[in-house]
Write a structure and sequence with these properties.
Layout lengths: L14 E2 L10 H13 L13 H14 L6 E4 L2 H9 L9 E5 L4 H13 L3 E5 L8 H12 L4 E7 L11 H10 L3 E5 L18 E5 L11 E5 L49 H15 L1 H11 L1 H10 L14 E4 L6 H10 L2 E2 L1 E3 L2 E4 L7 H14 L1
Parallel strand pairs: 1-10, 3-4, 3-5, 5-6, 6-7
Antiparallel strand pairs: 2-8, 7-8, 9-12, 11-12
Helix pairs in contact: 1-7, 2-7, 3-4
Protein name: Aminotransferase class V-fold PLP-dependent enzyme
GO molecular function, one term: transaminase activity
InterPro entries: Aminotrans_V_dom, PyrdxlP-dep_Trfase, PyrdxlP-dep_Trfase_major, PyrdxlP-dep_Trfase_small
Amino acid sequence: MENQKQLFNLPENIHYLNGAYMSPNLKTVEAAGILGIQRKTNPTSISEEDFFKPAEKVKSLFAELVNAPAQQIALIPSASYGLMNAIQNVPIKEGQHAITVNEEFPSDHLTLRHFCEKYQAELKVVSPPDFVEGRTESWTNQIIESITEDTALVVMSSIHWMEGLKFDLKAIGEKCRETNTYFIVDGTQSVGALPMDVEAFHIDALICAAYKWLLGPYSSGLAYYSEKFNEGIPLEYSWMTRKDSDDFSKLTEYPEDFGPNAMRYNVGEFSNFIALPMMQKALEQLLEWRPESIQNYCFELLNPLRDLLDQKGIEKEVDNRMSAHLYGLFVPDTIDLPQLMNSLKSNNIFVSARGSKIRISPNVYNDAEDVEALMGVLQKHL
């Protein structure tokens, strides 16, 4: 895969290695959003079928991206919304518990904690080992060993959002299947840049905010809910999620039945005439590129950085256990992290600090110059 910077409008004088914070707009996504704004200037241009058909198109594109049936996809406004839709519908028996991982993203942790408090269930947090090399495999094994028939659900991100560690989702999903445990995954920091297969990984619910690796707008997201959730209770009681809601002549019949499959979990007013066209353009581009190609591109791009870390004796996880699009640099205690971050920013290099790690998150709009600029500053501090 070749560099795709020409498809974005990033300023020439910055080195934006911070896609895990927020993606820049593709030019096509920006244009679709502007056109969406303009459409409402003349509301006669928006037909009744526009409330539903564009949403179905977006669902089908996302379904292809994660290998799921399109009818099991829902449109959501945020990861926390999508998580709550799933978690509140997990059955739990007396004496059962829930599992998550250490330093999980706040929305995931807080939603799960609320669930446990409601049902007076224990929330077990699986911590990583103290070492860096081999950290991911050891942590994954601890998670798998913690899952028993008394585990009602496991909630975790597809990769660790601070460190970029690639958990073995297939192995975790298989253990959850064996123990009748619900497996709920926050894919916000990987879906779009790293291959995802909900069938192969036995994922029961996959929740994704759109504004990072899906290259979509803020306050938008997509979720997969397996057939286990088809009779669940949604967060909202919108008219748009009801059976035959696309027939405007029947609106005041107030149907009780929800639409089929995951339709009940759509957010109210899901037919966002600005955000949906943006989301469609983003997903079409991602499917053209393919996540595996994005991952390979980012891996090659960061080869010089990994070589530098080896030369400097900086501990790092083995390459095949780290995501290439979100690479966590474990900063030694001898380094003044705030000072290093200030130095990077003063050189127009944009990354994130999360805990004691620097989160370096490139995408296809980055090139060798961006990595060289980053390394130039790192060398002075390392």
